[in-house]
Amino acid sequence: MPLVKWLRKELKYLIQENLDEEIVKKYGIIEPIEVKNLITKFENDADYLYNRIWLLIILHKWLRKFAP
């Protein structure tokens, strides 16, 4: 599954929608600056970080749906 490629192109919107600074701050599980740094590194060709990005997307997508 070419998740790295998808997160850079077709699924990039998932990063924008679910890892926006305000959303990350709202739930307070992860430090927003760390998420921002992770995304920046990923965007600068640190392909190995795709799995961390994906897990954070899933976490925040779940929180947005089920957390108060």
Tell me what you see in this structure.
The protein has one domain. It has helices at 3-8, 12-18, 21-27, 32-43, 50-66. The protein is globular and about 35 Å long. Helix 3 runs antiparallel to helix 4 (32-43) and helix 4 (32-43) crosses helix 5. By secondary structure, the chain is mostly helical. It is built from five helices and no strands. The longest helix has 17 residues, at 50-66.
Characteristic key phrases:
68 residues, mainly alpha, 0% strand
Sheet of most strands: none
Q: Please give the share of residues in helix.
A: over 70%
Strand content: under 5%
Number of domains: 1
Q: Supply the number of helical segments.
A: 5
Structural class: mainly alpha
Brief synopsis:
By secondary structure, the chain is mainly alpha-helical. It contains 5 helices and no strands. The chain has one domain.
